Amino acid sequence: MTAALSGTATVGRNVPLRPGQVVGDGEGGDWQVVAHIADGGFSSVYEVRPASGAAQRAHGPRHRALKCLWGTPAELTAIGGEAAKMAAVEGHENVLGLVSAFRFDGTDRPQAHYVGLVLELAQEDLRRFAARALPSERAWAAVFEQVAAGLDHIHSRRVVHGDIKPTNVLRIGGRFAIADFGVAAPLETTRSAGIGLARTIAFWPPESASQGVLCADGVRRPPVDGWRATQLGDVWALAVSMHRMLTGRHITPGTTPEQQYELVCLGKYSIDDRLGPGWRQLFADCLAHEPDDRVVSSAGSLRLRLAELALADDYLGVPWTDGRPRVVAVLDLGHPTAPAQATAGPAGPAGLAGSADPANPAGSADPAGSADPAGPADPAGGMPSWPAHGRPTPVPAASTPDAAHPAHSTTHLARLTPADPTARLAGL
């Protein structure tokens, strides 16, 4: 998507809605446009709020994101399937939530027809988060542990996402959620899924090279029946996304998505040696050229490896009596305020309080082939204490000045056990 900050573009390019305009199904699901957020290839995204008391009673008073797609009635029938796809994987904190869906007609374009998807409102995608927060390697492990947890949930519903990339992971307060299910498809008996003619080629695995035809212009044309994706390919795409966020570059030296994909298919890619040894080993286990050689081949196993990277070395030998650890990252989001303070109630961690984050609905931004602003950083932050009964308790993280922003604190980490999986980070 091409992002537009509020105030720089008041009307979307693809679906023109003006601030104050009300859209909806007329049955209590009406929404008032607050601001334009971003434009995609066939869509526009807006910040909206409930336009009536009935809408507030049905969906609550919070602002949401409205993703509007346009097309012919037949195309909209197919596009509307994205709502059904989201409904099929709902129910997980690391999967973007769908609030409602409806069709509506345009006023500026009387012949135009639209589908509206009302979604959770995110503050930013991973690329903007990386450029602004500059997370450490350990903090990135905690962030991507959340993403892997969401992908594991999606796969447990026998669904292939088919378009995992940094701009399709959004920050909503203190959690990170997978978004954009436009090409997602159910897993078939062939252990693959037909996702149509669209894909983000730079994040696709080498085993997909047998699909399509490579033309003289360097562009691989899709098969007649469309591309097919796999859950293993989703894991590969997440690993490539992690590499981009940690190092600021793709795993190949290619400068376009087409070049990057063809180099991947030829096995001409590498892992950045500036990374710490734990990350280098994880990428080696995720990105073997032959699928059978990949030690990490599922979202669940990737999640466990990321949890190990996020945990301080001092605690690697301590048993987790409650099962798998749930790692939560608390990061300074760029505000010159006091460091976040952690609290824990008698029954376990109760959450974390930090500085308020002003509304910054950024939406998905930037094409996959452009350079990433994020680079690697040294791990920093406080570690949790270990109480006598064996459960980790979050404690206030140590704070040191950031060289670029002396008034800002560095990254903080805290951990929650599965015994309290619903705990939330507050105040981010």
What does this structure look like?
With 428 residues, this protein is an alpha+beta fold. 23% of the residues lie in helices and 21% in strands. It has 9 helices and 20 strands. The strands form 7 sheets. Strands 1, 2, 3, 4, 5, 6 and 7 form a 7-stranded antiparallel sheet that branches. It has a 3-stranded antiparallel sheet with strand order 8-10-11. Strand 10 and strand 11 form a beta hairpin. Helix 5 packs antiparallel against helix 9. The longest helix is centred in the middle third of the chain and has 20 residues. The two termini are 25 Å apart. The relative contact order is 0.13. The N terminus and C terminus are likely disordered.
Short description:
The chain is α+β, with helices and mostly antiparallel strands and 428 residues long. It is built from 9 helices and 20 strands.
Summarize the helices and strands and which ones pair or pack:
Blueprint: E1 2-3, E2 22-24, E3 30-39, E4 43-50, H1 53-59, E5 64-71, H2 73-79, H3 81-88, E6 98-105, E7 113-119, E8 124-125, H4 126-133, H5 137-156, E9 159-160, E10 169-172, E11 175-178, E12 185-186, E13 193-196, E14 213-214, E15 220-221, E16 227-229, H6 231-247, H7 257-265, H8 277-286, H9 299-310, E17 326-330, E18 341-345, E19 348-353, E20 412-416
Antiparallel strand pairs: 1-3, 2-3, 3-4, 4-5, 5-7, 6-7, 8-10, 9-12, 10-11, 13-16, 14-15, 17-20, 18-19
